[in-house]
Amino acid sequence: MADAAGRLTKLAEEVLGTPLPVRIRAWDRSESGPPGAPVLVIRHRRALRRLLFKPGELGLARGWVAGDLDIEGDLYEALDLLAGLLWERAATTKAPRAAALRALARPELRAAARELLALAGAPVPPTPPAEEVRRRRGPLHTLRRDKEAISHHYDVGNDFYALVLGPSMVYSCAYWECPDASLEDAQRDKLDLICRKLALKEGQRLLDVGCGWGSMVLHAAREYGVRAVGITLSEEQATFARKRIAEAGLADRIEIRVQDYREIKDEPFDAISSIGMAEHVGRDRYAEYASALYALLRPGGRLLNHQIARRPLADEETYRVDDFIDRYVFPDGELAPVGRTVAQLEEAGFEVRDVEGIREHYALTLRQWVANLEKHWDEAARLTSPGRARVWRLYMAASALSFERNRIGVNQVLAVRTPDSGTSGVRLRERSWG
Hints:
Layout: H1 4-16, E1 23-25, E2 31-32, E3 39-42, H2 46-53, H3 57-66, E4 69-72, H4 75-91, H5 110-120, H6 143-154, H7 158-165, H8 183-197, E5 205-209, H9 215-224, E6 227-232, H10 235-247, E7 254-258, E8 269-275, H11 286-296, E9 297-310, H12 323-329, H13 338-347, E10 351-357, H14 359-375, H15 377-383, H16 386-404, E11 408-416
């Protein structure tokens, strides 16, 4: 099995039809590929078996999470080189990304397939890593299934998230006045921007849908004097948020509930914030989500919907969630183009008054989170598992690149439940958000 790296490089280039942009180091310590490039480390031939039994993104993800695959050198550079190769192929073929492995079934590549099988060793499918979501029950986006999906992502330990997010405990895109600002300042500025867009005033009633660890309701109650209700499906988040609120002396002004937005019955609210939550709703439920929030607002009330968006497709029916994201990060999560989000909010009755795209801000935020994780790597792995820490490092680094390359975006959509009189309450030149 000498020079496994050279054989793998040759195979990859034959299948992909282009030179491999990264260097390979195999389990036999052999190396091959462009000098000075980031190194794709294949620690165990089991990684090849994962790819053979699950060609494409899921096989690669399982190898990464299990530690069979690693990157030595600049992670962002390596992901950018590999993603560029895969995205270029995706743009020129109807096949899914990384579908080159499926090409091994073509007659002209049968020799390459036999070579890969020989390198992979025993033809036994490896067990998926423990961090992978197992079989899910019932239809998409029922109350029970949504709660299970949220628990998978958020109930991995508040201490782990504190290492990654920092003291703000805000798990959404920050707002950077300048790239040199601190993460804490950028997250505070984001929360304040949302409060100003909502035109919050003392004594008003705010609903924060998907309140996380309570940062938005804390800021709004402390700085703007509102009474606030925050809802989450995560028991761990709710416990943490209630403790923060009690320590801040604001328990008489803020209530945290473990509750789905579809279960709220104590409307109306003067304003609603939904920050990084709508991605969990699902396209089949989005109209219901928009209508529910509309019904919860008083006439003249404002909604600030902060949501990740994907690029539109020529045929929207071909949209599929990435296997890695679905199995390891956000089970059942779905992204929509911003145009569709705006349309559905308006179909529910809202008047959309402002859309602000801030994707570059999310790239900066994610790079800060990755740096925090890497700085506290050993503790993060201890608090969760090495595999879970690897999931978060890969997904956050890859997401940062996706925002930078305009593959995905994030938008703040301000909408009003404008009354029949047509008086929206929005000033003629509201963009200053003063």
